[in-house]
Design goal:
The chain has about 500 residues and is α+β, with helices and mostly antiparallel strands. The chain contains 16 helices and 18 strands.
């Protein structure tokens, strides 16, 4: 009889873990509290519109990469999935004049020089650093402890040539690097790429990767992406339980022996040979493990929020009764008035539309997302706890302010007919995201560049997966962690490590 693996959470890490479990002779069963899969990698319908809540670009769309192999193996990117590789990432609208961050080194350099010739030296430094880090990647074949000596050596040798550049880029934030540009326009254009608190490595690697042909957008968006992995898992014989809340992990004499679910108000024990929690780390330690276990890796990060920054966001989703296909798909402009995003203000408004995907809106209409990073979780949490009515009014106020700023630049935004607003509290409520953070700890200049190996001290047969096991998190980390969890289980029970 095949050994059973109980997987908690049907986000990307849980689904990927499920696929690899089935492919390696285990009996995998996933338990998900929500009525749908994907976790934060999702989309939803409002009236006749489909709003996408996750993928802006996807690392691993480039064929031949280790991450692409994971996506292909799990059905997320099979041969039928069209990848949209955009010519540029974002357009800056300067009173009607447009400037573009092209996903091509020469075009980008030429465009930035057109914006600000006096920034030639810093522009050339940016291009140099992007080129150096264009192929930087984390291990995706096997975790370090399961690599052969030869593979470890190859991995180390790959990074030796970029040693000095790596050191320089990791010691400053994106915000500090952008201060080197004299042009406010260039600073605004590049501020959309990665969070400003990240080390500059994040900027170089992201832009370099996109210029190298990675970072496309899978047609169909986030929900379709997650559902393809779900279908692959089910086709392999995996079992999926949606709308099933896991209350705790059952541990006996230091061994995880299963999970306890809530069934019609009655606790039911599900026995398993291995347990893979693929959920928010705080949910795992505080709820599923009852606060009885601790790991220095996480305790250190939660106790030092300046060094290990968590990013919250608020997004305004709009259904517009107008065809925006002739407007840049991703655009930023300086607002007429600062936008109060709850606990702070923003001087720029960045929006993206999805006219390239015909399934997102009725013909002649458009879906739009406007997101603001680094908003105050405490502001939105206190507001919701104090008054549900006040919370809803504040979301509507924000949407109205955003529409006003958009309409001042593009008259088409005067035809908004559907509105939805997502706050940090939304991420917390639906996904259990700690402090409403949609990513894990950011890679700041002072953060340790280490990963968690998935093994919790004092508990056998439990292997953690999810974006919280590594810095910055996101879909690539989630996918890799799901694969690594199964490789570690294979090693533990004597199976060949695929």
């Amino acid at each position: 009889m095949a050994q059973k693996i109980a997987i908690i959470g049907a986000g990307i890490s849980g689904l990927v873990a499920g696929v690899y479990a089935q492919k390696n002779g285990f009996e995998a069963e996933i338990y998900e509290a929500l009525p749908n899969v994907g976790g934060e990698c999702t989309g939803w319908d409002r009236n006749s519109y489909h709003f996408d809540g996750c993928i802006e670009f996807l690392t691993g769309t480039k064929a031949g990469t280790d991450l692409n192999d994971i996506w292909a193996t799990c059905g997320a990117l099979d041969g039928d999935v069209q990848i949209l590789n955009r010519k540029y990432d974002v357009a800056y609208n300067d009173n009607g004049k447009l400037y573009y961050t092209y996903n091509n080194y020469e075009l980008l350099k030429k465009e930035l020089l057109r914006v600000s010739p006096e920034d030639k030296e810093h522009i050339e430094l940016l291009i140099k650093m992007m080129t150096a880090f264009s192929n930087i990647s984390k291990p995706a074949k096997r975790p370090m402890e399961l690599m052969s000596k030869g593979d470890k050596l190859k991995f180390i040798l790959k990074y030796i040539p970029m040693g000095s550049a790596f050191k320089a880029g990791s010691k400053i934030t994106v915000k500090e690097f952008l201060k080197g540009f004299k042009s406010e326009k260039i600073r605004a254009m590049l501020s959309c790429m990665v969070p400003m608190q990240c080390s500059a490595l994040g900027l170089f690697a992201t832009m370099g990767g996109m210029c190298s042909g990675d970072g496309g957008w899978p047609m169909g968006g986030s929900a379709a992406f997650s559902n393809r992995i779900k279908e692959k898992f089910l086709s392999l014989g995996g079992k999926l339980n949606l709308g099933t809340m896991v209350k705790r992990i059952v541990i006996k004499t230091g061994v995880a022996t299963g999970i306890a679910i809530e069934n019609d108000g009655v606790e039911k024990i599900i026995f398993a040979d291995f347990v893979v929690p693929a959920v928010d780390a705080k949910v795992l330690f505080d709820k599923l493990l009852g606060g009885k276990y601790h790991e220095k890796f996480f305790d250190e990060r939660y106790s030092d929020p300046e060094r290990y920054f968590l990013l919250s966001t608020v997004s305004v989703f709009l259904g517009v009764d107008a065809d925006l296909s002739q407007i840049p798909h991703n655009c930023i402009f300086k607002s007429k008035n600062p936008v109060d995003v709850g606990g702070g203000t923003e001087d720029y408004v960045a929006f993206k539309h999805y006219c390239h995907s015909k399934d997102f809106a009725p013909e002649g209409k458009s879906c739009v997302t406007v997101s603001f990073m680094n908003v105050s979780y405490d502001y939105w949490k206190k507001l919701k706890n104090t008054s549900e009515e006040a919370y809803k009014k504040e979301k509507q106020r924000l949407a109205n302010d955003v529409i006003k700023e958009l309409s001042a630049v593009y008259k088409e935004f005067g035809k908004v007919e559907t509105i939805d607003v997502v706050t940090p509290v939304t991420y917390e409520r639906y996904c259990g995201a700690y402090r409403g953070s949609y990513m894990s700890f950011l890679m700041t200049p002072n953060a340790k560049l280490d990963s968690f190996n998935g093994k919790i001290s004092g508990v056998e047969n439990l292997y953690m997966a999810g974006q919280w096991t590594d810095l910055t998190g996101g879909l690539p980390t989630a996918a890799v962690s799901g694969k690594f969890a199964l490789q570690r289980i294979c090693k533990a029970c004597g199976k060949p490590v695929f």
